[in-house]
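Page header: ASSEMBLY MODEL / two components / 429 residues total.
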Amino acid sequence: MVTVELDIFSGRPNPRWALTEREARQLTERIRADPSLLLPLDADTGGLGYRGFIVRAEDTGMADDWKRLGLPPVVRLGGAFQPGAAESSRFLLHSAEGARLDLRDPGPVLAEAESVILQSLDVQGVMTLCSPAALTSDTDFSFWNGAANLRYNNCYNFASNLRTNTFAQPGRASGAIYASIDCAAVGGGAVRDGWLTACRADANYNVCLVIWPNYDYHWYRYCANSHWCHKPGQTAARNYDNSNQLILNPETADRGGYTVFCGYYRGYNVTVS
Amino acid sequence: MKRSLRGAWLALGLGLLGAWACATGSAPADAPGAEEKAMASAARASVDVFSGREAPTWALSDDESRALREAVEALPEGTRPLPDVGLGYRGFTVTWADGARATVHGAVVEFVSGGRTQLREDAPRAVEERLLLGSRAHLDPELFKAVASQVQAAQP
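Prediction written out in full:
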């Protein structure tokens, strides 16, 4: 029997279900075609929220075929940073629909997983920092945190390094603010403001976009000493995450409910409002 | 920006009112008095939960505004400051027309009035609960649920 565990919860036990023989056969075909789909159990596949699947080959039946292929009995597939596994992840997710899950709320849980899988397809690759990188201090935030400016500039102001005192919104400066809260819409607004996905030759603010699905967005900017900095809304700019840890990698930092990592953007002299 | 303009406007209005009363040697007439009372009790509340988007805000009724002001002013002094949450629910804020402002997160209330900032302690978290319940009519149902769950999860 081949079972699948959706690795998504922090407190509750993850939902698990068995694949039908047909589904197990289809899964092994996918893996045969692309063995890189499989990851070791300790691979970094995300923080809070959707982290991919854990596949187990137990007892007999399809498990025998699995073992005959030389596959380990327990493996990971997919995750928050694995766009290459998006198709197979969706396949596994859909196999949950026919199964009887021990969940009071399967709808929203599966939808959340699907949302992260789809949005991972937009990820601009792994962290590549463009140079020359335009850096600001990773410790001195007085430019942002004084009483006259603190409450009127948000994460996007900080990421752009433009203190407009307008609580800037992606796309507003170009007359087309984002229409929904997702990577494509908010990222699209940023692109209209002048942000790029490719590196610039002269100077680059390296920033990245994350999403709290359906509710909000947040930006981080690469600052001095290899740290990432950010400004959560109207609160103080800082160089640490929700767990008070210095941010070395925004993909793995504690981002609270902002579980979807959209990707990296670069810019300099963009226009925000 | 908007708030400080309104505060300046109010100060000017009240100043003129006082000057007028002194000049005539009598109490202000009913109409300006009633208006003054309404402005003093009107308030706006907001929930600080977003980073990119503006915080949702809504108007409070006169009764609610007065009740909250009384509740906050009745709280004992505290020593704990507002926590530095980062991303997510960071508290409710009420701003009264006279410029006073209270921010509440869990059992901590930070009350700013007349240029002074005071910390208060609300052990039963009654002010926060009142604001949370009052926010329900003004927030999208899913957002309300998300805020409520973060309020519950907030460390005391």
